[in-house]
Amino acid sequence: MSSELLAPLDLAFWHLETTEHPMHLGALAHFGPAAGAPAPDDSDLLELLSRRAAAIPRLRMRVRDVLLPVGGKAWQADPGFDVRRHVHRVALPGADFCAETARLAGELMERPLERGRPPWEMYLLTGGPDGAFAVLVKLHHALADGMRAVAIGAGIFDEIAAARTAGGRRPRSVPPRSWMPGPRQLAGAARSRIEELGRAVGVGASVVRASRLDPRGTHALAAASSGTRAVATVVLDQERVHAVRRVCGGTANDVLLATVAGALRRWMEGRGEPLPASDPRALVPVSRRRPGTAPDSGNRLSAYLLALPVTEPDARARLAAVRTAMDRNKAAGPLRGAGAVAVLADQLPPLAHRFGAPLASGAARMLFDLLVTNVPLPRSALSLGGAPLRALFPMAPLARGQALAVAMSPYAGQVHIGLVADGKAVPDLDALADGLAAELDALAGR
């Protein structure tokens, strides 16, 4: 049976997981019935979702041990794969469907995926008004980064499934080649390896310099981890984001990062807590995946470190500070600076990931306070069983010592934001969610 070694960063995510800190990504997708069409039958939807998930090759793969390299793992097709173990239906009361799906998502996101089988789950959540329903997807971070999760999960949508059924892409022939590298190949590989190691040394030095021996200054985000999860969802008008960008400059992502900074300030003030002595740091992931990269290739991530200017009282000044910092990060590039810590994982042998994971997970708190990520979605309209996709809220995992992760996805003229928090550390997550809309109003001058 063929197998594929886990890439170094995939292996790191696999070993970083603990019971209290599951390392899976998530997405909560809401679907509404098509205008003038009858609501799809729940049993038919469950069958459709199961059939399409089972047809995605990557979702049939599990992680297994290998003898070599020592400490390594490999992806292998699960000989006992049964999609019914992965796809479930939950009927909700429907009184407040959006709130109920977010509450249930929090409960389901805190449960680790079973490691003995392909590491993913889907839940069909039914009971919405007029036949509306939702789908919650959980994918282990070893299986997918944000962009690859979109590529894998898109197979459940009508449009993608129809394209595959129609024939999809023709496999490209691979010209025969010798497995023995020639002198030029050996020289190129050696030169590339030296460059990679030099880059890793530079990133490592930046990480050491940026680490904080006492990170308790941002105490609103530094409560002890409880293993519980809470989820909140927010929808922002994408045109308003672009209107702010046109007036103030920068990018739409700069506006969203400033919106998060202002929402954090409002949330801290609403708690009656003093603002931190130093601004909290956000880890802002950056995809290193290039067009044409196979969706089944490993995690391809770096990141920027960004001090979110919560101590700045003016909303537009906060945006200016974010813009300046992000311009500086982009000028340096995603392979430099302490935020590129994920690059180090690509340089470590498998055994180092196995034994170094506890140390690495504990060190995250010394480097950053929260995760803020932007996950792009297809621009075309999507549907499931004829029901159009109304919203898709991405959800990011919490590293050890982290109480909050913010994930954003623009789709159909809106920005859908998924907030994942430690349930006991941030019991007032809805207040933070309300702060995001209020901060965008402030930036827009309302």
Provide a quick synopsis of the model:
It contains twelve helices and 15 strands. It is an alpha+beta fold. The termini are far apart.
Structure commentary:
- This protein is an alpha+beta fold and about 450 residues long.
- It has 2 domains: about 5-165, Chloramphenicol Acetyltransferase (2-Layer Sandwich), CATH 3.30.559; about 200-380 and about 395-445, Chloramphenicol Acetyltransferase (2-Layer Sandwich), CATH 3.30.559.30.
- It has 12 helices and 15 strands.
- It has helices spanning about 10-15, 40-55, 95-110, 145-155, 160-165, 185-210, 240-250, 250-270, 315-330, 340-345, 350-365, 430-445, and strands at about 5, 25-30, 60-65, 75, 85-90, 120-125, 135-140, 230-235, 280-285, 300-305, 370-375, 385, 385-395, 405-410, 415-420.
- The protein has a 6-stranded mixed β-sheet with strand order 5-6-7-2-13-12, sandwiched between helices.
- β3 and β4 (about 75) form a beta hairpin.
- The radius of gyration is 22 Å and the shape is globular.
- The relative contact order is 0.18.
